[in-house]
Amino acid sequence: MLRYALRRVLWILPALLVATLLYFGLLTHHAIPTDGPRLPLFVNTHPRDVRALSAQALQELTDGPSDRAAQELVRLGGAALPHVLPHLDALGPEARGRLAVALQPVAERMGLATPAAFSTPENAVTF
Q1: Which residues make Cβ contacts (< 8 Å) with residue 97, sequence separation at least 6?
Q2: Do both 55 and 115 map to the same domain?
Q3: How many CB atoms lie within 10 A of CB 74?
Q4: Range of the domain at 13
Q5: How far apart are alpha carbons 71 and 42 in whole angstroms?
Q6: Which end of the chain has the least Cβ crowding within 10 Å, N or C?
Q7: Which of 75, 79, 81 is nearest to 99 (CA)?
Q8: Digits of tens for pLDDT over the chain (127 positions)?
């Protein structure tokens, strides 16, 4: 009787593991949300880190004015600075000004500058 009970208890763990994997698999394939962003339900096979996000925003800002890229840099905040600032010298004057103006809210949030320091892109770059 004890052997039977022990065997039943030990089979609970594999049964729970299989049930969990099946449940998440069904959720991944059948329960797709229609509103909001598509987020992975089980495994994110293509994670995007701050380096990739800041590089993409920097590329968009160098191509031309982009409100979305500026908002992305503000959202990333100080975490994007180590990935963006080394590329500042390689940019042209217009792109450098756009990047500096895009980083204005980050500088204000960090307490490093006032809005007057960013009155023009040239002033923002010298800051």
Answers
A1: 120, 121, 122, 124, 125
A2: yes
A3: 16
A4: 1-31
A5: 29
A6: N
A7: 81
A8: 888 888 888 899 899 999 999 988 887 777 666 676 677 666 778 888 899 999 999 999 888 888 899 899 999 988 898 999 898 888 888 888 888 888 888 888 887 777 776 666 666 666 5
Residue 101 lies in a domain: yes
Residue 56: predicted pLDDT: 93
Q: What pLDDT, on a 0 to 100 scale, did the predictor assign at position 51?
A: 92
From residue 20, give the alpha-carbon distance in Å to each of 7, 8, 25, 65. Answer: 21, 18, 8, 47
How far is the first Cα of the chain from the last one, in angstroms, to the nearest whole number? 80
- The label of the residue with tokens 């590089």 reads 55
Asked if 24 and 61 sit in the same domain, the reply is no
The domain tally of the chain equals 2
Cβ atoms of 99 and 63 closer than 8 Å: no
